[in-house]
Design goal:
The chain has a single domain, classed as 3-Layer(aba) Sandwich (Rossmann fold). The strands form two sheets. It has a nine-stranded mixed beta sheet with strand order 2-1-3-4-11-10-9-6-7, with helices on one face. The chain has a two-stranded antiparallel ribbon with strand order 5-8. The protein has 263 residues and is α/β, with parallel strands linked by helices. It has six helices and eleven strands. The protein is globular.
Length: 263
């Protein structure tokens, strides 16, 4: 009799423990860890469209197992406050916000703790851009000149202690890209942390359009924001290199986790 009572009590206790664990798990869902929304255009330069298509495929593959949500849209009207609120990271693959409403939506999102990841042309700006806050986000660098045609280049890791540069070699050859140079260099801004740069060993860089010298940051973050910019983003093949893919994944994890000690 006592054995039956003890058995029932033990069963009840185990049930209570399991129920409590389930309730705790339900209140703190483990997956998805975060949500990302990528914007791209189908009507820009063909090499930039090619890059966007490969990027969408690459990041979608990383979501297998429901680790995170990756949504992509070519509709820039989705750049609005209501839509962005549902995402932890906003990615710009080959386009920029169009019009005042879209610009205000991104600015509001970033000033309230959102994360931005821009590739290549997503940071293009010149005297016609007329968006002071965006220039602030980028650290003050204005497009100056570029190399052409798209070619591989030797890159140098500037800050190997940063999580984005974790386990990267001191130098590596990046796949073909059209390399942008900025003036002034973002490195001159004390709020900018340059993580990867073009090695001076590449100069003169290019054939038709040549970058002869100067500082050329490739990956950087503005420590006032959860943001990172990558110069990569032109033509096919950007996701065919294991080292560069490792760099992309590091950046994804860093943005999603919002590791403030590195801001």
């Amino acid at each position: 009799m006592k054995r039956k009572v003890m058995g029932k009590l033990l069963s009840l206790l185990l049930l209570l423990i399991a129920t409590a664990g389930s309730a705790q798990d339900a209140s703190k869902p483990r997956f998805p860890r975060f949500k990302m929304l990528a914007f791209y255009s189908e009507t820009v330069e063909p090499p930039h469209v090619d890059f966007a298509h490969e990027a969408v495929a690459f990041f979608k593959d990383l979501t297998i197992g429901n680790g995170f949500v990756f949504d992509a849209t070519s509709n820039m009207s989705d750049m609005n406050a209501e839509k962005l609120t549902g995402y932890d990271v906003v990615m710009m693959l080959n386009d920029v916000p169009r019009g005042e409403k879209q610009r205000q939506a991104l600015e509001h999102y970033m000033k309230n703790g959102g994360a931005w990841w821009g590739f290549h042309v997503a940071a293009y700006n010149d005297r016609h851009t007329g968006w002071p806050w965006f220039l602030e986000l980028l650290g003050g660098g204005v497009f100056w000149r570029n190399s052409w045609p798209a070619i591989p280049a030797k890159l140098t890791v500037d800050d190997p202690a940063h999580p984005v540069a974790k386990a990267l070699p001191e130098n590596f050859i990046a796949p073909s890209n059209e390399w942008y140079q900025w003036k002034p260099s973002p490195r001159e801004n004390p709020k900018v942390k340059v993580l990867v740069s073009l090695s001076p060993e590449n100069y003169p860089l290019g054939l038709k359009d040549i970058v002869p010298d100067g500082d050329l940051p490739v990956v950087w973050t503005n420590t006032d924001y959860r943001m990172i910019y990558f110069n990569m983003g032109h033509c096919r093949g950007a996701f065919h290199d294991a080292t560069q893919n490792h760099l992309f994944i590091n950046a994804l994890r860093w943005l999603a986790e919002g590791d403030n000690q590195w801001q």
